[in-house]
Automatic annotation (TrEMBL):
Organism from which the protein derives: Mycobacterium bohemicum
Taxonomic lineage from the root: Bacteria, Bacillati, Actinomycetota, Actinomycetes, Mycobacteriales
Keyword Methyltransferase included in the entry's annotation: yes
Designated name of the protein: Phosphatidylethanolamine N-methyltransferase
Record-level GO BP terms: methylation
CDD domains: AdoMet_MTases
Keyword Lipoprotein set for record: no
Source species, domain of life: Bacteria
Length: 213
C-alpha cells in the first residue's frame, strides 16, 4: 500500500492558543475523552496528542502508548505530560503517516485530530494498516452538521478557520471516511457540546468505536 506523504507541521499561532483551549475544555468534552479511552488495553497509538490532554485518562490495562504530535511546541508539552502519568507513554514528533509499522497496535486513538489532517482518507488507511486484525479505532471528532450550522461550517472552512486553527476543517463527514478506509463502525453517537443557539462550528462531536475486521 502506498503511504501518504507526511509534511512538516509548523503552526505557531495554533500552538499558542491550543494549550489554553485544551486546559479549559467544557465538562461534556472531558467526559467524552474519558469514555473514548475506557476499557483500552495492550499497545495503543494516539494520533495528534496535542499537549497530552488524554494522558491521565488511560486505564492501567494499557501497557504502552505511542503518541505522535507533529507540532514541535505542542509535542514538548505532551512529553512533559507523559512524564507524570503512570501508563508508559512515548511522545514523538511524527505524523500518523510516519509511524513505523513493525509491530501492530491493539488500538488507535484519535481525538479532535481527523478534522485537521490534510488527507483524512490516506491517514485512516494508514491507521488501518497499523492495527492488528480485530484492533479498535477509538475516535472523538468534530463532524459536519446539518442545516444552518452546516452552512456556517462550510463558510468557516472556506475562510480563516483552517488558517488560524491548525488546518481544522469542521464540515467533514468523518465517519463515512472511516468506513471507506475499511473499518466497521460498531457504535457511535453525536453530542452537542454547546447550546443549540451557539454559532461555533465545532460544537457537534461524534464519539465512536470502529474495528479492523
Amino acid at each position: 500500500m502506498k503511504q501518504p506523504v507526511a509534511s512538516k507541521v509548523d503552526n505557531p499561532f495554533f500552538a499558542r492558543i491550543w494549550p489554553i483551549v485544551a486546559t479549559h475544555e467544557a465538562g461534556p468534552i472531558r467526559a467524552m475523552r474519558r469514555e473514548n479511552l475506557a476499557g483500552l488495553s495492550g499497545r495503543v497509538l494516539e494520533v495528534g496528542a496535542g499537549i497530552g490532554t488524554n494522558f491521565p485518562n488511560y486505564p492501567d490495562s494499557v501497557q504502552q502508548v505511542v503518541a505522535v504530535e507533529p507540532e514541535p511546541r505542542l509535542m514538548a508539552q505532551a512529553q512533559a505530560a507523559a512524564a507524570v502519568v503512570p501508563v508508559p507513554i512515548t511522545v514523538t514528533c511524527e505524523t500518523a503517516e510516519g509511524v513505523a509499522g513493525e509491530e501492530p497496535f491493539d488500538a488507535v486513538v484519535c481525538s479532535l485530530v481527523l478534522c485537521s489532517v490534510r488527507d483524512p482518507a490516506g491517514v485512516l488507511r494508514r491507521l488501518y494498516s497499523l492495527l492488528r486484525p480485530g484492533g479498535e479505532l477509538r475516535y472523538l471528532e468534530h463532524v459536519a452538521s446539518a442545516g444552518f450550522r452546516g452552512r456556517f461550517q462550510r463558510l468557516a472552512d472556506a475562510t480563516l478557520w483552517p488558517r488560524l486553527l491548525g488546518n481544522c476543517h469542521t464540515h467533514r463527514d468523518t465517519e463515512r471516511t472511516i468506513r471507506e478506509a475499511g473499518f466497521e463502525v460498531e457504535v457511535s453517537r453525536r453530542e452537542m457540546t454547546l447550546p443549540v443557539w451557539a454559532p461555533m462550528p465545532v460544537s457537534e462531536l461524534v464519539l465512536g468505536r470502529a474495528r479492523r475486521p
